[in-house]
Amino acid sequence: MKKVKVVYFLPLIVVAILLVFFIVGLQRDPRALPSVLLDRPVPTFSLPGLPDRDPALTDPGAFQGKVVLLNFFGSWCVACLQEHPVLKRIQAEGLVPLHGIAFKDKPEDTLRWLGRHGDPYDAIGYDTTNRIAIEFGVTGAPETFVIDKQGVIRHKHVGPITDEVWVNTLRPLIEDLQNG
């Protein structure tokens, strides 16, 4: 007789467990993707530049000694266009070098896009094989990394940088890293 009662409560127990997982999942930020690269040196790479656009992003060793913002973008990316005015303001502010890596794109499309919307990047590398995006664990565009003076990745931001993200997260982090 007791076995029958357990069978009646089993679906209720399963639903309760699933509900707990659902509630916990709703409280997590879907943009907060963990990165295995945090607190690790920038992967070694050498990327060609875009035709008739200097400088190329050929040596991440050039990051040594300064804090850098590294942005993965593409002309095909709607969210990249959304963040582009913020990147232009960041570049105009002059607080930090802004480097870009164009990926999943054709060089002529990237150049046309930058010509149409403005070019906020101090240097751009063209990821012809998307290998560098894979090494950085990029899952989409845009994604932006804050790299410290020692060439170590300190922060990964997934999605477009908004004014709020710049003011409340990235700018204070960059200032701390520059002063530290």
TrEMBL record:
Gene3D superfamilies: Glutaredoxin. It is found in: Cell envelope. The chain crosses the membrane at residues 6-26. GO terms for biological process: cytochrome complex assembly. One of its GO terms (cellular component) is outer membrane-bounded periplasmic space. One of its GO terms (molecular function) is disulfide oxidoreductase activity. Keywords: Cytochrome c-type biogenesis, Disulfide bond, Membrane, Redox-active center, Transmembrane, Transmembrane helix. Residues 36-179 form the Thioredoxin domain. The keyword Transmembrane applies. Belongs to the thioredoxin family. DsbE subfamily. This is DsbE family thiol:disulfide interchange protein. It comes from Roseospira marina.
